[in-house]
Amino acid sequence: MMLAAFITTLLLFISTSLCATPQTDSLSLDTATSLQPTLSLGTTSSLLEKQKKAERPIMEFSYVPIYYLTTALIVEGQKESFRGARNNFIPKFSNKLDDYIQYSPFILTLALKTVGVENRNKWGRLLASSAFSYATMAVLVNITKYTIREQRPDGSSKNSFPSGHTATAFASATILHKEYGLTRSLWYSAAGYAVATATGVMRVMNNRHWASDILAGAGIGIFSVDLGYFLGDIIFKDKYTLRHNKLNSNNFYTSPSFFNLNVGFGLLKHNLQIGDKYIYSNLSIQTQAELAYFITQHIGAGVRLSIASPTVSFENYSDNMGIGTLTAGAYLQFPLSSQFALGGKILAGRLAMSGFNFDDKLVVEKSHSFTCGLGLSAAYAYRNNIAWRINADYDTSNVPINATLNGEQHSTHKQLHQISLSGSMSIMF
Hints:
Blueprint (H helix, E strand, L loop, with lengths): L1 H18 L9 H6 L6 H14 L9 H12 L3 H11 L8 H4 L2 H11 L8 H26 L15 H18 L4 H20 L5 H26 L21 E9 L3 E5 L2 E5 L3 E10 L4 E10 L2 E4 L2 E4 L2 E13 L4 E14 L2 E3 L3 E3 L2 E17 L2 E20 L2 E21 L1
Antiparallel strand pairs: 1-4, 1-14, 2-3, 3-6, 4-5, 5-8, 6-7, 8-9, 9-12, 10-11, 11-13, 12-13, 13-14
Helix pairs in contact: 1-4, 4-11, 7-9, 8-9, 8-11, 9-10, 9-11, 10-11
């Protein structure tokens, strides 16, 4: 199943390479029009034609929802592992913030519009496209919830899959992305999707959803807005538009910074000796959120949050161990063309390992340690400031282990090596 996740991402990476739209000039329609005195009539006409082609209704759709929905199906088989990590790290976590921040990207869109920051559409078209989007999302979420009837992890009801909060948050973020991110600055998009990601993570932290629920919710939210704006484009055509998308903003020379949501798997199994006994861990699915800002075309700085939840076994017992890392450091990028780039990173930070208990026969306490690592990536930017990225990461840390085996205390250290492969959807800005 974990190998299938990587293969799926690789196939999507290849398919988008084959189906990509042709490269266009890095100018908006407004810019092209303003340059008419200095550009030839033929050049301006060419830019206008490329703008029209880039904004055909069908271009509203992307491959991103396919990635999230496919990954959700794969992660479904490992959902107990992620819940186990949550229960080991933060068993009593409870916070209602996710009930409110799910709407904040859309509220920001309306607020910016109200104070006069020009966006993509006039009020009527913005509200109509948003209404189509939210209506589609509500129908898809509720039909799926009450058809599948997945039990929530806290046992409260059978309407867990998919996460409605996450779908709402990603729909809100995608509206902000279309109205302001694509037409003004991708910082709007990065902010919106960061809030949407936080909403989904908090749903898992609150024990209200499985990891697969939030991935499916993200896919449904993005797809719903793609469909809502597609319907808006069909109905309104060229009317009531204030600002056009920037052309060719998917360019590693001009937009090297990125925000990633990664899903992948670890390649190494581990064993730990406590006294004369051994604990074994299996391969695990890993999730990561990663933000990198490039000061120049090649050099930047960033931060990465990574969560892994391998199953650990001891004699006839098993439990889930959570491994979380928060690291920061230098990011490098080497564009091979405007659409292909190789990358690297050198990171350092903190690792937290959850404790676990095997029926009181063996109890391992929580621990923290310094961690550092290296990473390589290959990325392809296909359109609308979205890139597919394949990552290979290596991290190492010397983890202190304090355990009680049959009432006897043991202390040791474990040199933990982690090698992971992951695929991600990146927002470029």
